[in-house]
């Protein structure tokens, strides 16, 4: 009951402090205001309480149908959306690319219109093409949640990472968050960069130059090119990047997205860019270790670091369910 | 924006004191009694009841906070400031005598939601209801066991309970309903959704 302390300014001031939510879709964090992120964080707190109950189920979304439409493989995202929807009392239908009419060549447009026609109210989708959920959102009444689109965005991952960081560090303003690995192909990195910079964190990305997004150049580079991302520190030397870091986030080396020639060898990559105990020791004491999963053990992160006491990797997965409950709940109570 | 004051700070203090005594009397003591405040303003009211009871009975009563946001059936579309907070029930309520505490009793829909929410935490021996204001216009067969004051109201009026802990002062005001476009309504939060 900490919020019930006497507060000057009266009811209107108290009201102004409450976050605002007015969204029909969640496609990326690039247009989220601090207040909207705050709304998600607060709602997630309440969802954590629900998940801690003996029977973690509430009727908030009773009678709603949530469809997960995944054109790409996924374990944790799809499962956590399903658990989230069920914990809120919704009905859930899971559709993968194989085993559905997608295999017969049905277009994305026709597939989602069909899902809407049979009565789904909310659509969680993952697609290999960047921007696919935006196309869908323009053509359906359903709430659309982006569960990952190409290299572009993975907003619920960004939000669960922020939630995890905040639960350990509190306010993220001025906190040094180092994201290391395959930034170029990472939707997780992009959504984190948007969300974290919105909250005033100091974001450092670290990767070999070949794994930086087009237009993103190392610090001190003379060439300025337009970049569809907020300004962040870019470092190619991980030993330097980790100095004083509050959070170290390793990304999966996306082997399936890599056309050959970006890296000389996995061994060299691991030597230069692996999050290992030596590097962890250079960060701020107690710095948080994170990874969105799935991990390539021994490549981007050493098993010892991944399982260390500073690792929040399993916590990220648990928090993911609560964050997705918050997103589904907030969307469901918006426009009818 | 003018309203008429129906309860002053002093009235509120007396009403809380009387309800505290009634709770002890009705339950013949405090055995198994748990106070559960409904967010937002039921929570400070429950805390005040517990403090008052502690004063004259020299016994602490467990106090919880219940958020009914996830159980409501009357969520207004496009409410811009959604706010749900964690429910905190400090003790196993199985077999206990739970006293639900809210600021205003109106349609009864919040209480319906609160009963559902509470029962998800266990099977209390009984659930009683304490409210600071009963303004009438029930839509469900629900009544309060303890009432600070019955205030007859019109449907186009709004009862606003202001409490020191949340609003900086103690007062209950009845005022004409403000439409959303005219400005913010003071009494936001789950308790207000019964409009």
What this model shows, in words?
- The complex is a heterodimer of chains A (336) and B (195).
- Chain A has 12 helices and 9 strands.
- Mean pLDDT of chain A is 90; it is low at 1-15.
- With 336 residues, chain A is α/β, with parallel strands linked by helices.
- Chain A has helices at 10-16, 34-51, 76-87, 108-117, 132-139, 155-169, 187-198, 238-241, 266-273, 277-282, 303-306, 313-332; strands spanning 65-70, 91-96, 122-127, 143-149, 176-180, 202-206, 233-235, 247-250, 288-290.
- Chain A is globular and about 55 Å long.
- In chain A, the strands form 2 sheets. In chain A, strands 7-6-5-8-9 form a 5-stranded parallel beta sheet. Chain A has a 4-stranded parallel beta sheet with strand order 2-1-3-4, with helices on both faces.
- Chain B is of the alpha/beta class and 195 residues long.
- In chain B, strands 3-2-4-5-6 form a 5-stranded parallel beta sheet. In chain B, strands 1-8-7 form a 3-stranded antiparallel beta sheet.
- In chain B, helix 1 packs across helix 2 (42-57).
- Chain B is globular.
- The chains are: A alpha/beta (336), B alpha/beta (195).
- The A-B interface holds A 1, 3-12, 14-15, 18-22, 39, 42-43, 45-46, 48-50, 53, 55, 57-60, 88, 329-330, 333-336 and B 43-44, 47, 63, 65, 67, 69-71, 75, 77-88, 116-117, 120-121, 160, 162, 164-169, 184, 186-188.
